[in-house]
Design goal:
WH-like_DNA-bd_sf, 15% strand, 4 helices, three-stranded antiparallel beta sheet, 105 residues
Length: 105
């Protein structure tokens, strides 16, 4: 948790926001699992490059998040060919893991 500006010494307060402050934008090279899941609005498979493009993020960061979600059982991976991996929501009891029991996110 960061120190509120009013609790900082004058030198710190003038230094501007610090990493971890809500006002500091996220590093564009860092993609959260939640951001990746937001790219899956339906059950259609998506290649890593498309997810990265939709998030305007680098493919390596997106790939890490996709693999983490796969390990958690949220996404499944399908190899289309030697160079293309497709990602899709994992199926559970006839529903997508991206949607809830009522079909809504």
């Amino acid at each position: 948790m960061s120190t509120p500006p009013e609790d900082r010494c004058p030198a710190e307060a003038d230094a501007g926001p610090r990493p971890g402050d809500e006002s500091v934008p996220a590093d564009p090279a860092t993609v959260t699992q939640e951001q990746v899941l937001d790219a899956f609005t339906d059950d259609d498979p998506r290649p890593t490059a498309l997810v990265a493009d939709r998030l305007d993020a680098d493919a390596e960061s997106v790939e890490r998040a996709l693999r983490d979600l796969e390990r958690q059982g949220v996404l499944e991976r399908r190899e289309r060919d030697a160079r293309t991996t497709l990602w899709l929501p994992a199926r559970r009891k006839g529903r997508s893991s991206v949607t809830g029991p009522d079909g809504l996110r």
